[in-house]
Amino acid sequence: MRPPARTQADASNSKPVVLLADPIIPEYELELSARYSLLPLADVDADTAASVRALLTVELPAVTAELMGALPKLELVLASSVGVDHVDLAACRRRGIAVTNAGGAFSDDAADYTVGLVIAALRRVAAADLYVRRGGWLAGGDYPLASKVSGKRVGIVGLGNIGSRIARRLAAFGCAVSYNSRSPKPSSPYSFVPTVRELAAGSDVLVLSCALTEETKHVVNREVMEALGKDGVLVNVGRGGLVDEPELVRCLQQGVIGGAGLDVFENEPDVPPELFSMDNVVLSAHRAVATPESIRGTIELVAANLDAFFAGKPLLSPVEL
Length: 321
Description:
Layout: E1 17-20, H1 26-32, E2 37-40, H2 46-51, E3 54-57, H3 65-69, E4 76-79, H4 89-95, E5 98-100, H5 107-123, H6 125-133, H7 136-140, E6 153-157, H8 161-171, E7 176-180, E8 191-192, H9 196-201, E9 205-208, H10 222-228, E10 233-236, H11 245-253, E11 259-262, E12 281-283, H12 292-310
Parallel strand pairs: 1-2, 1-3, 3-4, 4-5, 6-7, 6-9, 7-8, 9-10, 10-11, 11-12
Helix pairs in contact: 1-12, 5-8
């Protein structure tokens, strides 16, 4: 049974107060409640709001300038996700509020899942599974052949913690990896391509693993998909907003690209219904990062960041503002 969140009366003890921007899951409660007074943001009184220093987000609630304006002593926003597009980073920068994220806690699981989506999309694994389950193999014979994975040219948008792990895994398949990011990575063994369109034009598979920002919103538009081409596959494990979603649907319908593996969508949990009948598309419910192991690692990282903050020590996973 989930333990109740602490009340404001509990905050009068010696434990530092941490505001909760959204409902906390039991695993976080068990880890943090012994050291911190966890108070739901919606329930705090004016005195608490005027003095609180840390705000925790577990899912993706909007942390706006207006919200932070009601917390004059706020110094830290802790995100339990890798992406922080739900946080007004410009407002944090103006106020000098630090932001932390999940760092590398999700990276291995997200990279593993991405490789799974690449394989599933190229080899039509989900469609072949459904074909067998519906009796197609018995009634209609062998399922049509699909494209191989090994040796494909893979372009990765965003060579951070997750992107670099995706690159290493696909390189082990003999794939030729290149990437686009804000700037070249001097230590990377992979080829840097200055624009996403050029990257798509030289790739069989385009993987999105970058953050969603004003600069990257709809970074994959029709022009990029046309460059990827009729046999190309788009895989997105970043954020849905990286892709012009209505244009993606049209490009798939018109055969502009060959297929897609999608773990994220622009208006989750709403998914364009046109995708449901496409056997060249693999759909997933924003689960690339989530395993029991990665969630445990994230909770430990959040706790370590809180411990460091209240002890006046450097944060473990600060976000560059």
